[in-house]
Amino acid sequence: MTNITRLAGMMAEIGADWAVLTGADSVCFATGHVVPIEIGQSPFSGGPTVAVVGRDGSAGLVCPNTDGGQGGPYEEIAYTGFANAVTDQVANYRAAVSDMVKRMGVSGAIAIEQSSFPYAIADLLSEKRIPMDVPLARLRAVKNDAEVGLMTFAAKVAAAGQDEARHLSVPGACEMDVFGRIRSKMEVMSNSRCAFAGEYITGVERTSQLGLPINDRSIELGDPVVCDLAPRVAGYWGDSCSSFIVGGNAPDKYLHMYNAAKSTLELAISELRPGLKVCDFDAQLRAHMKGLGYDYPHHSGHGIGTSVHEFPRLVPDETALFEENMFIMIEPGSYVPGLGGLRCEYMLRVTATGAEVSAPFEMSCQ
Amino acid sequence: MTNITRLAGMMAEIGADWAVLTGADSVCFATGHVVPIEIGQSPFSGGPTVAVVGRDGSAGLVCPNTDGGQGGPYEEIAYTGFANAVTDQVANYRAAVSDMVKRMGVSGAIAIEQSSFPYAIADLLSEKRIPMDVPLARLRAVKNDAEVGLMTFAAKVAAAGQDEARHLSVPGACEMDVFGRIRSKMEVMSNSRCAFAGEYITGVERTSQLGLPINDRSIELGDPVVCDLAPRVAGYWGDSCSSFIVGGNAPDKYLHMYNAAKSTLELAISELRPGLKVCDFDAQLRAHMKGLGYDYPHHSGHGIGTSVHEFPRLVPDETALFEENMFIMIEPGSYVPGLGGLRCEYMLRVTATGAEVSAPFEMSCQ
């Protein structure tokens, strides 16, 4: 079933006549149109790209002329954003949305995304508005067949980056340079430039902390490495994390900690299935890790799709149930001052009866 | 003078009591806070980061907790975006903006940016709104002393990328891989990950077209290369373009075309000065290029700052005047099927009496 059809079904449930999608991730989910995001909002846009979907399965897209023409199951208006002349992008954007609203006959109750719906087009649409953030997040969490293929490929691109990371993490190499080469490997594999989240952090002191930026540190023999790679490929995100010791020969204490995280990941692979409650699964993973003497101060994982973090997040109070064809990142880790940090992360697809790893890569610390 | 003080002056001119900045570029311009843009809107945000500036020079910032704490001349509220629990980011965002509005006493006439002002906070602010897009763009075009330093460094990072491009553009190398290594060089130099615009295109057929994506093409001896590098460093953009022949030995026809673009760039350097009308300058450059037998189907250049393309754009109908401390990209080029393409682009700072190249790099085609 196409996502436009699925959206139409959701709209019927929440009583919306039309949906106006304005998040780059939701636009891609609905239409397949990939909004360029790598430099933030385009300087040639007059506002966020808009996808309009009707309950009858009709769809329209309003985007700047700098990224129109991708083609898809929608009517497109590509307004003048870039021109060899002075132009008013906001006016062009508003005119294009207004045109689309008239062409498609958009009226009645309008479902909107609260975090991205722009003020600039509010007066062009009916004032009867229904927030769709929660039902849309739930709909997006379950992937259709085409999306399963896209997610699997994005996971494979991340896995290829992980292989490259092991080759390039050698004494004397520079953290930032290795990271760049890993990213380059993934972009060559996908034959496209990728938006990119993640981190590549080395050394005992740095890996035992969370959230540090990549820098120019020189890698040393025996360094722990935390390599978290998340590329966006054709609008869909891969994600992954491996941890290892440069040159192998992990100290016993690090190996023990590593095995705790790895066995927690293995537990997740064996236990994840449709119908399981997210908070129960999260508690099971945390308890397993705790039983081995470690814990992690973050989520156990998260959904992923056209956004790198999406519903459901694997946190202690999430009561949603897992469903078939959700893609779930599982990422137990441990971060101990003086010893270093690590995280073991695979992408899992929830199958009809269990779960499978979307794109395995080497998961050992030496 | 700080940009907050300059903004306060602008507000007095347009009759605004407060300015609510919501573009990532404008937030950085006003406060120095660098909004992460590399993966588009953060999945942990409830809406665009907001900077509030008062006519008295007071300033406030509302951002998700994932990028708070950068420090600057403003009061900050970092709302819960990322948490190890289920959380409603939109509600948190709205609450934080509402709190900031009360703390600062925001009322009266509110200046807004039309292309980014979010519907989600419209009801939290006075309904008397003044679009500030045009005056803000004009204000941002002229840099203060701190910005001159930031722009110059960003230009130097781009120039270092250009040097690297000449080293790496050898027969057998892969376009995407070379691009990745160039980017890596710039990120190592800036010791930070950079958002990145630009292109690295090779071969006669590909360089004679505009707007192609980088791909896995294998570079050949004698290929023309168009290397356009634009990194964002600490919130400010560098930009640059060089063109050259792999292995040197440019064909006479290419060399002739190259010299036309280069002499147009040299003319721009000698002619650019405060008080000159943009359209007159644009016409002068186009006429010079035309006189040598070539033309380009795009702008002659553009302003640059916290956005990679900003006011003024060098197009035939822009009647604004150049002012001291504008940073202007100048980029004459030519694209001829069967011969290839090229573009020669430097960043210029408008000085009190003329213009200077911010960060020169080798500008020859062989």
What is the CATH architecture annotation of the largest domain in chain A? Answer: Alpha-Beta Complex
N- and C-termini, Cα separation of chain A = 44 Å
Question: CATH superfamily name of the largest domain in chain A?
Answer: Creatinase/methionine aminopeptidase superfamily
**Overall 3D shape of chain A:** globular
The H/E string of chain A reads HEHEEEHEEHHHEHEEEHHEEEEEEE
Quickly name the level 1 CATH class of the largest domain in chain A.
Answer: Alpha Beta
Q: Which pair has the most extensive contact? A: A-B, 65 and 65 residues
Describe the largest sheet of chain A. 6 strands, mixed
Oligomer: homodimer
Number of H/I helices of chain A: 9
What are the low-pLDDT stretches of chain A, counting only 5+ consecutive residues below 50?
none
CATH fold-level assignment of the largest domain in chain A: Creatine Amidinohydrolase
Describe this structure as you would to a colleague:
2 copies of one chain form a homodimer. Chain A has 366 residues and is of the alpha+beta class. Chain A has 2 domains: 3-136, 3-Layer(aba) Sandwich (Creatine Amidinohydrolase, Chain A, domain 1); 145-357, Alpha-Beta Complex (Creatine Amidinohydrolase), CATH 3.90.230. The first copy, chain A, has 9 helices and 17 strands. In chain A, strands 4-3-2-1-5-6 form a 6-stranded mixed sheet, sandwiched between helices. A 5-stranded antiparallel sheet of chain A has the order 12-11-13-16-17, sandwiched between helices. In chain A, strands 7, 8, 9 and 10 form a 4-stranded antiparallel sheet that branches. In chain A, a hairpin with a 2-residue loop joins β8 (224-233) and β9 (236-237). In chain A, α5 runs antiparallel to α6 and α8 (252-271) runs antiparallel to α9. Chain A is globular, with a radius of gyration of 22 Å. The two termini of chain A are 44 Å apart. The relative contact order of chain A is 0.12. The mean pLDDT of chain A is 97. At the A-B interface, α3 and α6 of A face α3 and α6 of B.
